Amino acid sequence: MTEFSHINAAGEANMVDVSSKSSNLREARAEVYVLLNSQAIGLIQRGDHHKGDIFGVSRVAGIMAAKRTSDLIPLCHPLMLTKVTVDLELQADQQRVRITSLCKLDGKTGVEMEALTAASVAALTLFDMCKAVDPAMRIDGLRVLEKTGGKSGRWLA
Amino acid sequence: MTEFSHINAAGEANMVDVSSKSSNLREARAEVYVLLNSQAIGLIQRGDHHKGDIFGVSRVAGIMAAKRTSDLIPLCHPLMLTKVTVDLELQADQQRVRITSLCKLDGKTGVEMEALTAASVAALTLFDMCKAVDPAMRIDGLRVLEKTGGKSGRWLA
Amino acid sequence: MTEFSHINAAGEANMVDVSSKSSNLREARAEVYVLLNSQAIGLIQRGDHHKGDIFGVSRVAGIMAAKRTSDLIPLCHPLMLTKVTVDLELQADQQRVRITSLCKLDGKTGVEMEALTAASVAALTLFDMCKAVDPAMRIDGLRVLEKTGGKSGRWLA
Amino acid sequence: MTEFSHINAAGEANMVDVSSKSSNLREARAEVYVLLNSQAIGLIQRGDHHKGDIFGVSRVAGIMAAKRTSDLIPLCHPLMLTKVTVDLELQADQQRVRITSLCKLDGKTGVEMEALTAASVAALTLFDMCKAVDPAMRIDGLRVLEKTGGKSGRWLA
Amino acid sequence: MTEFSHINAAGEANMVDVSSKSSNLREARAEVYVLLNSQAIGLIQRGDHHKGDIFGVSRVAGIMAAKRTSDLIPLCHPLMLTKVTVDLELQADQQRVRITSLCKLDGKTGVEMEALTAASVAALTLFDMCKAVDPAMRIDGLRVLEKTGGKSGRWLA
Amino acid sequence: MTEFSHINAAGEANMVDVSSKSSNLREARAEVYVLLNSQAIGLIQRGDHHKGDIFGVSRVAGIMAAKRTSDLIPLCHPLMLTKVTVDLELQADQQRVRITSLCKLDGKTGVEMEALTAASVAALTLFDMCKAVDPAMRIDGLRVLEKTGGKSGRWLA
């Protein structure tokens, strides 16, 4: 591919035409990291062993955001996601939280933007809840891990 | 601060009460990087010199997303932003695009989540438009650069 | 069924995976009651005989809300509803308004949450319009009346 | 008051004009009950003692819905809520969950519709998560408990 | 004024900075016409004398759309409208419906875009409801009629 | 057709039931004009030859609005658009901008409301960006140009 599919010959924004593509099962997985200071890590650890909502709220926000992807990203098609998963794992040794997401669809186009949006908004929500303790957090390494279904088959990072 | 402001004593999600805070001018700036391969960098460069909408579409998506922050992040307050700026700069030598955002408010609470959301969604939109050429892009280094206004004064990364 | 389908083994929020379910015709009906004082009942009665918008506005709000169910209820799937009906009936003798809703879908999952959301928001809208006259209203008896289609066949309250 | 404020003399939908009302602190509290069968009650109890997200997800959904009230209820004014709280309490003896909500605003109009919407959507979300175990649940007794601020002062149910 | 306020020196989209503008009462009125064939006019007339919801549904859609203007128009500021009115008048002799809208705000920027959006969406809704009878309708003459408040004072079309 | 499909026998708002309609390829095209004064025309012309975002921002706003049609127009069905195009052409001689839109769907109902909404919001966005230079603009001639697919075949204005 030597051109951007989302920009036409005149250099204008272009939504790809998927009218004639066939519907089939598609999946995408994404990941992102939130880097926190040790005080924030400590508070999350404490919550984990009790009943803190920190991870729960981030998970819900990520799932809801996946469903709103086409409302946020101008050239994304509206899709009827059949499954969204968001997982958060505290990696205390590396002073970070790893967030992974999975989106599934029985439809005409890939769902990697949905998986990336879910991971992004879960990370932003975690940031929001921890920012009073660590305003210098960083969100890093957002990328697609795997993509299956569709004409191009499986893509693995 | 030794506790998360967004989690109450029972470990439950908690929207901070800003009812009695005074309204004043607040600003926040954020940044994020999108790392692309050389083919994508080349296509963006070409667009820059012509009239490609790549940066324009990302900018609009970022500005619109800032206005929807409280709709995406569960514990964010609804705010009447008075100004949103999103800038994209191609740093071809480092094979990346730098995105910076600025949000302003005359209100009761800080706007760093709005600035982060604007930068995030601008980056996701850039990703969407370039993914056919480079599916292995990475979005990195999302963080707050500066925050002014409010009781705590100026905070600089 | 001995477990919640929407909570996984780790106790986390879980969107049910409907990727492999077949698409077929599904319907759900719900009802709810709004209990009002005699002054509000009288004003609605008068409007009925003239051209009051009280019931009309509630109906429109309920129909629009049905379409936004997956945006409000975190683990609901986005669906392409093919029909939404909201009906309001003044039952003056019982000093109440009965609201019923019907949702239809040709799709992969049931639509009872859509029917409940339509009835709920229609009731809230009626409440909003009558609250200056009767601030002590109560919304009661929201439930699913019937559900058809899908693997489990017909369910009747 | 002998007329509906939300319907004009011609019987048409009417958004109350609050342009000239002064801004002051306002609060409203609402409650609602979800009635469940003993199997659902048992599963929630078990989750409570572990780390089930059932109440957490409902709380987040209720908080987010409060912020979208003016988007759902046609004649509600857009408001900048300064605080939203949603609480869920299992009342196992009565086979029900009690949900209470609190909304606060420094603004020109009351927030009882916001409190009612928060409680409603939290109840609908609880329903969604429990419906596989108990499809015959009922949502009952949605009402305003208390309202303070504004010209009319304190109102108590 | 010799430049567009919404485009900066580099030709990029620019949200006007209203941070330092003072808050005051502002109003805007807009109008639009929907031109219909005689069959559609006849059906609306019949409804008018009975209890047709044609105008009622359009009015509600227009009011709700006004509240979502900043979500639709990229460079509009989020605003807390204090009043929205939408009126529809059948002008059977000219085979058209005239729609007028009024928006009010106690805030930092004008509300003509909100008035135009209200009128627009009311007209689109009328079109939707009449299109089976007259697919060749035309929506004409959308413009601002009057604008008051703010530094520039009163503007009259 | 001698009745409005969107109003039932009782004169109430009625969403057409498309449950049993078959899915097939459908398209609709719409157009609208924005009439501007010569100063605004001049500034747009200048931008065209440089890199002004005026048309780009309007195009993005129109595309995004098409995807939100069922959220704005009460009786429209939610649809999964497979393609949206918005084009803007400066017709300097006639002192106007012509906006055309195209929507495509593989689904159960026509997409003319989506095409009209895209054109409308693109026009409103253009208005917003030019209003400081020409507050007396007019948006004219919004109509469907062509509609294909579905039982009724091709319709041409």
TrEMBL record, chains A, B, C, D, E, F:
Pathway field: Cofactor biosynthesis; molybdopterin biosynthesis
Keywords: Lyase, Molybdenum cofactor biosynthesis
Reactions it catalyzes: (8S)-3',8-cyclo-7,8-dihydroguanosine 5'-triphosphate = cyclic pyranopterin phosphate + diphosphate
InterPro entries in the cross-refs: MoaC (IPR023045), MoaC_bact/euk (IPR047594), MoaC_sf (IPR036522), MoCo_biosynth_MoaA/MoaC (IPR050105), Mopterin_CF_biosynth-C_dom (IPR002820)
Pfam families, per the entry: MoaC
Catalytic residues in the record: 128
Presence of keyword Lyase: yes
Domain Molybdopterin cofactor biosynthesis C (MoaC): 15-150
GO molecular-function terms, A-Z: cyclic pyranopterin monophosphate synthase activity; GTP 3',8'-cyclase activity
EC number(s) stated in the UniProt entry for this protein: 4.6.1.17
A biological-process GO annotation: Mo-molybdopterin cofactor biosynthetic process
Enzyme class: lyase
Domain of life of the native organism: Bacteria
Binding site for substrate: 75-77, 113-114
Function description: Catalyzes the conversion of (8S)-3',8-cyclo-7,8-dihydroguanosine 5'-triphosphate to cyclic pyranopterin monophosphate (cPMP).
NCBIfam families: moaC (TIGR00581), PRK09364.1 (NF006870)
Similarity section: Belongs to the MoaC family.
Assembly behavior: Homohexamer; trimer of dimers.
Protein name: Cyclic pyranopterin monophosphate synthase
Organism: Reinekea forsetii
